[in-house]
Amino acid sequence: MGQRKLEVKCLCKSFGDNTVLQKIDFYVDVSEFVAVMGQSGCGKSTLLYCVSGMDRPTAGEIYFDGREMLSLSDKEMEKLRLQHMGFIFQKANFLKNLSIADNIVFPAFQLGRRNRFEIRREAEQMMKRLGILSVANHDIRQVSGGQLQRAAICRAMINHPDILFGDEPTGALNSSATQEVMDIIGKINRDRTTVLFVTHDAKVAARADRIIYLEDGRVKDELRLGKYKDSERLEREHKMQKWLGDMKF
Known about the structure:
Number of helices: 8
Strand order of the largest sheet: 6-7-8-3-9-10
Strand content: 25-35%
Oligomer: single chain
Largest sheet: 6 strands, mixed
Structural class: alpha/beta
Shape: globular
Distance between the termini: 29 Å
């Protein structure tokens, strides 16, 4: 058993009379890559928002590095997210009045731990590594979906988070861009950043160390695949498809 980065106990979430999450227990270890799957409406995104502090559950416990998150005030939770968590969504949710580069550096300016020159220099290095430096000063409507999602990764990583959350991070991308983005996320994970995301794409989930399957707001099963290797891609995808077939996915 590894060191726990995130641990969830008996998590419940209701919206009025509609119970979305029912007594969920799961964990994510330090440097682990975990994917959450399930049919539409099973509670995947709600779970992600609760465990990342973007929404409050109705009941249960959430521990981040052993610290009980639900005891934190809204201001403390916001600081925890800004310092220790990165987020990638299906839609980048960039500020339309800012350039690509300005959107990337914005969370670091908010945190205020480094000077602006340092932050911009690091952002430039990240954009260069991800192949989007040429569009740094572009408007967000002047770039491709793949470029925008690479920029979202830069923004998510600018504060050096301990954990990277993703909500369908490749959902709006074609297969080529999906592979590129997953290669980048895989590299981030190999550099010891913990990753937790939800996806409906079996090929994307096959990159994870472990997959958790939700059904009707409960954990139905999980599949352990271990660390990803390119040489094992087809074997992993085949194993995933068989398992998802058993889940009636």
